[in-house]
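Chapter review. Work through the record for DUF1631 domain-containing protein before attempting the end-of-chapter questions.
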Amino acid sequence: MNEANESSNVVNLSQRLDPSSGRGGDLLNAVRNISSRRLQQYIGNMFEHVDDALFDLAEKAENNAAQMHYFDGMREVRKRRPVIERSFLSLVSRELNDFASGNRSATTPSAAGTPSAPVPGSVELSLVADNELEESLAITSMIGKNETRLSRDLFAVNQRLSVICGGTRIEDATNPVGPALLAQAFRQAMRELNADMRVKLIIYKLFDRYVMSALEELYQEVNAELMRAGVLPQLRHEVVRNTAGNAGTGAGGGQTAAAGEVPQPLPADDSEASAELLQTLRTLFSSRRGHSAAPLGAMAHGPLPTANELIGALSVLQSQAAMVSLPVAAAPSASAVDIAEQVLHLKEQLLTQLGSLRGQRPGQIATIDEDTIDLVGMLFEFILEDRNLPPQMQVMLARLQIPYLKAAILDRKLFAHRQHPARRLLDGLAEAAKSWSEESDRDGRLHDTIKAIVDRLLQEFDDDMTIFDRLSAELQQFQESNRRRAELAEQRVAESTRGREKLEQARRRAAREILNRIGDHALPPLIHGVLSRAWANYLVLTILRKGEESNDLREALRFVDAFIASTKPVRTPEAKRDLRQLLPGIERALRKGLANVAFQDADIEKLLAQLHAYYRQQLGDAAPAQEQHSQSATPAPLPIPESIQPIAESVADLEDDPASVEPAEDAIAPEVREELERVKVLKPGTWLEFSGQDGHFERAKLSWISPMSGRYLFVNRRGLKVGDYSPYELAMVMTDGRARILASNALFDRAMDAIVDRLSHEEVRAGESP
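Structure tokens for DUF1631 domain-containing protein:
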């Protein structure tokens, strides 16, 4: 498209989306019509599958309560489906209207997905916040996955909408039909559904499967329509590489672009940052060359190597590297040292190989090629030093230096695009490797998968850049299949931990209630034993089943008061009358309560017989001599049913828990307080490395933060529990050097920052030298 034609496509959309607003309005109307038609079809198709999915889950439910959640969800979805569909489509239409009128949505997935902070001390709001977090994580994951998967088509839609809107920058997060705003619109619409969070999460998965997965068709139709209308018909978002046959050298020693290559626009989300970073690197490399004592190979002569020669020499070195095989789960060893040496001396090996191929060692390498060689070298030196990667994985990934140097020479945009296929693959491998440990990968599947990808790149990569996309897809498929299994295990661990915490909370509440009511009363052993064991269990189960504000709990606590009152000395006729009035209620309550905690009838009758004897003695009634004698001794403890053994502890044991005591803030050492501040801002999904006293290392992800106790639950990559800590305990472990937080940003980004920092320090030192 020539400049005049392209400028004719840029229209001023100061009005609302309407055909009367000119050509731009017509095009946006076309986008809205395509989107509305397809989204209506997609959302309808999704709801057709909700019933079947929930019914299948109900059939497989672990208990009746869970089954009822799914059946209740099915009924609620059937009732609210029309409202949710209308709400979703209306929100999308409103986004398109606001977009056309210039009122861009400022909502981003992260902002929209963050629940408001709960009011301290509110259990209900804490539970709501926990549900909000689960929902936000599901939405955020869905958005990130689909933005990555759809990056090519979405990029083209963004660019074409930008042209229609007068050059306004359109990003993934502000595209009215992008995954971010569509997911948030559906989340908003789902507020019409009053269902259990488990049901909602299932529906979000179906939305991902039947709506988000179909967006590729929508984007392709939108792109085709806008291309037919003449909006950026030549736009391409693909790798354009400099083939060896097209490459040449310029007068200044730099290499020219391939013949006919059209410079491609950078993705809108990272073009400015990438351009600034590359400019900084060029400046630093230029300064570095200025401080060099002599140019590379100054004593040798010959023409500058062409790209074809560089690729040929690298291919020879690559074939040699492909023949080197690392042992399974390689630990730092002689082979690791060899690979580190290769990383450090690849430039020298490349010059030697070029000399062998042309019969004469080159005197110089083109400036752009030398900078590329140095930059890739520094990238892989960083990988070998990056403590976010296990040492075994550092060695594995370092073998990719030669293929990545070839890729950087073939396609100069590798360092400019965050979404470049080669860059995505390396970041994906590093992210998978970050979670690796021998304990979590006993079957070696992750290790072998990463090794297989490294080996294939070494063996198969010639000059076809599509191999990076293919290997990325394979890695993503492997990660996805493992993620699903890990999520199930992780969910079970979280639910188990949540259940234990609810049980512990109920035990503490029961213990406090009984202790507060006993106070200074010196209770007979029989009465104290009933309250601190059997009745404590009944209180715990009542709290768990009925809740802390239930009538059942209030009745159970009234029994405690009555039971304690029944032990007061009886000295007057009125006191005897009052006690006799209490006893039938005490017996009824005991029968009901003990039956609820699985006491056998024979045990209940035995206890009641002991109590009858005790109360006859209290009232001064005559009793057989043998019975009086038995009452003078301490009654034998009642057997506790096995089903409640885990909570059958004495009240004193419940209260005696030194592990729950943490020092006051002013008593915490400064270095621990500093780590505590870092701990408090950790988010679920953050990875840490833990080391044991035996030197064993384990990598674990922060899976869940308890809204009740504030404890941090950690799982490995398989979703299995590694440990749980209070914030103070975790801060102590970190202070002792037995745990450290791993970086959450991408490997490539970390490496680029480190390289800029390294070159900047080199420049400072060179400037200080005489």
